[in-house]
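Hi V.,

You were right to ask for the full record rather than a summary. Here it is.
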Amino acid sequence: MNIVITGASSGIGREVAVKLALDPQNRIYAVARNGNLLRSLSEAGGSKNIVAVPFDITSGRSSIRELKKRLSMEAGSIEILINNAGHLVNKPFEEHSEDDVADIVSVNFTSAAALTAGLLPLMGKGAHVVNIGSMGGYQGSLKFAGLSYYSAAKGALAILTECLAAEYADRGISFNCLCPGAVQTEMFKTAFPGFTAPVSAAEMAGFIADFAVNGNRFFNGKILPVALSIP
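Predicted structure:
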């Protein structure tokens, strides 16, 4: 399978790429801004089927069209897209600058939506789009001060998932949103300084990798909490 993962240079995304690369039939297109970290990904995992794609998902639709062109030439089709990239700013609601808000909303929502729209022409029946949300964006979950814009953006991504599942049902493309709880990553440390999460990035990645491959057999248009604790 041809699999695209954003935010693949570190944390959960990096671990998901490593997990999926264990199957030699998979070709992983690992997308992130940091080219050096991406190049070290395949070396660290010893995986020849991980392709480093240095790319800023916030760079606009024209850049996404270029990425689509590359993937069309190299892969031909995409079976799985994992929108994992995330950006978090932890500060009081009133203190978020315009740049803070723009970056949070772009990475967590609008750029994920734009990338999905740009790559949909490469997807056929049976394709699976997995959006990585957050328990912060899960309706009815416990909320925390300082994470208002981040949580709201992840909530928007969750609702988009439901909308696209309905819109593309006739094409046989599935959309689901996983909402991790506390996972020990750098982003978690930013959100909850001093806390230790009960789940490692590698453990969460194992679940996400399996769900990306098999979850659309049982789920479509679902927003699924994946949490042992919050935080």
